[in-house]
Write a sequence for this structure.
């Protein structure tokens, strides 16, 4: 059975194969489009599939960090031929093809498709783990040091998870399609394997949902910690005011150019008034504290 | 096959055609109504369809900016006739008719309907891109300069997206109807094309959902940045208070007309007390800073 | 065909008709109950329907304003009789009966039912427009003058929309029932008309959903504008404090009864110190402004 | 037909009946369990049903107030026997049995079951009305006097509504089961009655949903009124500061021990400076007011 | 009938059994995987099931407290054999096997599977009760003492409930699968038992949903109490300011080195001015109080 392994959808070889195997022009157009989404389309004489393998690559904006990156792999799987178009820079798709070559069987393109899909799905787990780690870090950050930058990181991950979720939902639908479609190329005895892959994708989606919940919790913690800090600052201001106001009031009173102020002529007047001020401040603080206002 | 291209639903020619081809009065009424919504209605002898092409036109309220604008196109497609009523000011519907004329086939009205729908859907992509750009700008704005105007822009786009989403949902249902309806005019060999258009609309809807999520994130960033700024202002007030209060308290004390204040008679009293005030302020700031209250 | 037009469900005539046409006691009980909800119930020999026409009536609490008000109309439509019970004070139900009398046909009770339902649904549009106008006003109010009263108006409309939505959902289900039910009295050739009415109700529901979204936006704008105003007030307080604190500190220092203060004995001391105070205040304001704290 | 009316599920009579009528051990276990939930279980020779009648009883925590309380009633309805186990302290279940005894027919256990269910459902309406009144009171409270206690009342009702909603959802499912189940004991000619009961439960559920919406509105009003009050307090503080600061600054200046202050030696200096202070304060207030900062 | 009770999925005995009973390699792989999720998979000659028993074990982070912990139990149930692999440290799975041994019947593996599942489900109730107690404690805490730590506890429980909910949803699906699957090993006469277990899981899920609602309420109470406290602190600050400002203003005025101040030369000037200050403060407080600003 021939297996054509292309690495560029614009390769003229593809046009030749399209003529030879009667591939639908819309599928060729899809394979060459820049923003394909994951899908499986079972025609009468072959199945067209698009998957999105993911790999971690260094993040140019944050040195030392990595970021999940999607590439595209297209498959045309007939009864007696297989055409794959993958991006050679993606280790996940390279690994998928390699495993298919090693474990697969030249006479069963359906099994090769399963092996490729299964490997691609396996490569989503490190991406999910990557976000798990990032979210754990954010949760620590948001408690220790609730800065606005944390918020931007939360929203950046939210945005990534929106994309990841969409790819996973489509991959799940594709796996379901390979099980249920009456034209599916997967023979009954291999359905259990596809169902297993489907279960893996469903578990990945569960994890993404959990991560979204955790991010929302992080956001709530952040917002409540900002409210708390405002509260704390207000209290500091109030304590400072409480400490100083009696002194200001008393010193203001004794600064007046009036006659008849008690102790005004006493040689230890400053001492008496100083003691009185301290006592007044302490009483005020005790009252506020008792009423749980501070 | 005759193709009647009208540009005004109130053209008396339409009444004539209605008699000739036995068009249903409700469809004529719909075509003439001001607020039609997207739909496909397959009758026994013809299919009535309403689509909403979109084009960008200059925004009168914001010079230099554009805004997506919907017009309406009505189609009556029978086995051997086609009637179209489009708004001639809309480049998207003009383009759709032009492509149908060029690529279509006079004997297959169903194919013409597909070509028109497909072109209309293609024209939604620039509208989505337009909102992507606007939302990107807003995200930058909200971080650099969180003003209430940003909020009004966010809600204006939200309102637009509500409308756009409704049109897309109805267009998706219309494309589904063209695939599934037992009376559909689309022959089986062209179903794959309609399914492709359906996939495009589904992807557009995905994008709109993502944009709504991003707008909600922008809103959360805005609200939290307002809370943060209040927090910052409170801290400034507290720092100012902290710096000034010791000076006020000490100067108040030495302003009292009392006897017995230390250094009151010393020739360098002002210097000693000045040093004492600065030291007291610094100690207070250090304490507050250590406790992370500032 | 006899058409009995009652205006009071407690009319003893209804009991007589119930005996004559074998009406179900539960339907008679429903017709006489105070809080009927919209429904269609197709029995073996007749169909029982409850609709809720709406009309705008002057609002006693807000002179010059109107408010949507629901009444009830009950229909018993058999093959060869029609009984209607409407509230004579409601212009919408009066109009519905009048149109049925004018356009309907004595021999087809089903068509009369359709005409009544269609007219009732047409009368929902002014109610929706009424809320559109109210929400537009609120949106202007909330930006110009965010007072707590705006909030109460928002919640009052929300409450109204909850009721309106329930009536519309039930009316939509009733229209669907008239199309789908195997016992439906509507003959196949009139189904297109009922479907049209169904589409109208669906569009009304879409509008109500949009209005709920817009009200939520208004609420968010209100809450964020309260947060903004708090922020503004804080800034005013901080600016005032910043302007006055240097003057207070300096005047406090020169109010001390101490020796050795610079310029204390200079004849132009007040002028020098005044200039110094103004310069200190300006420097402080410039620093705060540069750091974007104000 | 024998009707066994037990009032205690632990009555040994029940074991005897279980042997006699071949009741399933799981049903007996359910009847004796403390936390049964509403359900209908149609077996081959009898139907087992659990309902939850509600009644209002005095609230021990809030004298003068009432609170809805659930009890349990179990029914075993065969073709020729009926066993009921009710809590004798519940007026709703007593009323249900009494009505069944009065209106029911000894030969039709199914009709007795319907009568009991219908009476139980009728008794939910006062409970819903009770919450309507409580929520109306809360809405008035939250506007007049937004105290934290209001919030606790809101959450207490929310918690109650969660329970009530669960009971109603299960009761609705039970009513549906009595209509749809192929083994149902309800004969076709009585289905209309069960459907009517089903409609009542659906309307009760609608009311509970509305009440949840209203409680959420109350919560939003509460939170926004707290934000508003903080805003008001801030403004009072700022107005007080604005009134007093010019006086403090000016009196501070004239309190300095410096030479060269204008009017310092004028006999009416205090008057001139007093007028100047008042004018400065008024100008400041006018400026702040114009800029809408207060 | 042989029943193989393994305690370690890596036991080489499992490979031997896999060969003997023709177990599917994917099932063996699942049993040996670290993060299995709950499922039931009915093959042609046996059923593979994974359950997650829960038990409470001491929490190492919080001495004296406990925490729910999941382990895994795998079952391979054929017509004439049963293989179980359980974690021996888990009392719940030990109890399940013990009950199966005691009440089960060697010839019916399906009944053993039911007994094991039922015992596992029974052991979820204490875990739910555990969270009920924790949430009750939190609700008391959040009202008495709203500290940020409460928030962290709320989010920790939320996270736990996300996990618990997932396990329960999968267990419910597994129970449904045992009822509905055409290949199910459960014979018809035992379906009622499995349905009973299904009802228990559904009730557990209801409880988890209620707990999530209650946690959200707790969160709202927390956030509103922080807003309230900020409000309280603001009021204290304003009251302090209100009390002190008249004294400061008056004492400032009488501290000026000016001529013409009233009572300046009176021997009881200090007394008159003191009375005037107190009266001014009281009037100010009364005004603020009347306007409900404090």
């Amino acid at each position: 059975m021939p297996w054509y392994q292309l690495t560029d959808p614009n390769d003229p070889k593809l046009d030749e194969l399209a003529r030879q195997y009667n591939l639908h022009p819309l599928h060729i157009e899809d394979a060459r489009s820049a923003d394909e989404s994951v899908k499986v389309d079972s025609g009468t004489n072959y199945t067209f599939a698009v998957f999105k393998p993911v790999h971690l690559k260094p993040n140019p904006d944050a040195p030392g960090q990595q970021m999940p990156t999607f590439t595209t792999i297209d498959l045309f799987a007939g009864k007696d031929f297989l055409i794959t178009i993958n991006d050679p820079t993606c280790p996940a798709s390279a690994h998928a093809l390699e495993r298919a070559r090693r474990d697969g069987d030249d006479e069963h393109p359906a099994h090769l498709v399963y092996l490729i899909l299964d490997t691609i799905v396996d490569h989503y787990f490190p991406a999910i783990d990557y976000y798990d780690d990032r979210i754990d870090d954010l949760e620590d950050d948001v408690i220790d040091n609730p800065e606005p930058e944390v918020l931007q990181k939360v929203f950046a991950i939210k945005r990534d998870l929106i994309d990841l979720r969409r790819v996973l939902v489509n991959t799940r639908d594709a796996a379901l399609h390979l099980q249920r479609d009456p034209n599916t190329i997967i023979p009954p005895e291999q359905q259990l394997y596809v169902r297993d892959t489907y279960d893996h994708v469903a578990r990945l989606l569960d994890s993404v949902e959990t991560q979204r919940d955790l991010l929302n919790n992080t956001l709530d913690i952040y917002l409540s910690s900002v409210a708390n800090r405002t509260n704390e600052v207000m209290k500091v201001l109030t304590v400072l005011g409480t400490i100083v106001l009696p002194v200001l009031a008393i010193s203001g009173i004794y600064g007046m150019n009036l006659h008849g102020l008690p102790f005004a002529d006493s040689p230890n007047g400053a001492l008496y008034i100083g003691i009185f001020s301290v006592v007044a401040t302490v009483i005020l603080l005790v009252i506020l504290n008792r009423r749980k206002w501070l």
Observations:
- Helices of chain A lie at 12-21, 25-32, 91-103, 109-122, 124-144, 148-180, 191-254, 269-290.
- Chain A touches chain B through 50 residues (CB under 8 Å).
- Strands of chain A lie at 3-6, 39-42, 46-51, 54-58, 66-70, 73-78, 82-86.
- Residues 191-254 of chain A form the longest helix (64 residues).
